[in-house]
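SEVERITY: medium
COMPONENT: batch folding queue
REPORTER: lab tech (J.R.)

DESCRIPTION
The queue accepted two submissions in a row. Attaching both inputs and their returned structure tokens so the on-call engineer can compare them side by side.

ATTACHMENT 1
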Amino acid sequence: MTGRIGEFAWHPTQVDDGRDAGAINELLTCIHLRLRGDY
């Protein structure tokens, strides 16, 4: 998965095995909603 969420760049290499990908993605989604003011 690539792309930018708010001001945060997502680098797939940070989660090579994907074991925490779901939790990290959820966290980034929460951050994104806060930045957008939807939190």
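ATTACHMENT 2
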Amino acid sequence: MKKVLFLSAVALMLGLAQTQVTEAAKVQETVISNQLQDVTYQEITNDKLPEAVTKAVAKDYKDFKIDHSFLGSDGNYKVEISKGTLKYELILSEKGEVIKVEQPANKKKEQY
């Protein structure tokens, strides 16, 4: 009788654990699919940038000039900035939070 109760308890616990694993897998799948969505950008004039974005660029990239601005389909902004020969592409949220910084593909230095 003890074995039957013990085996029933083990089976119940395994069933509950499987449900949690399945839910965790669904959440992870949703996060991954959201990250893989392609973002498209439409060029906008610099005066259409939110104030938080222009302030963040001015603060973090002093003496850089905003060359081009884009609004992404995800609601974020891509800003191309330059200072002399130094150029960067920034992805910022509407609140001015820097999400990503990279050099434009055609300006990246090759590493040997």
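NOTES FROM REPORTER
The chain has two domains: 1-37, 41-107.
No errors were logged for either attachment.
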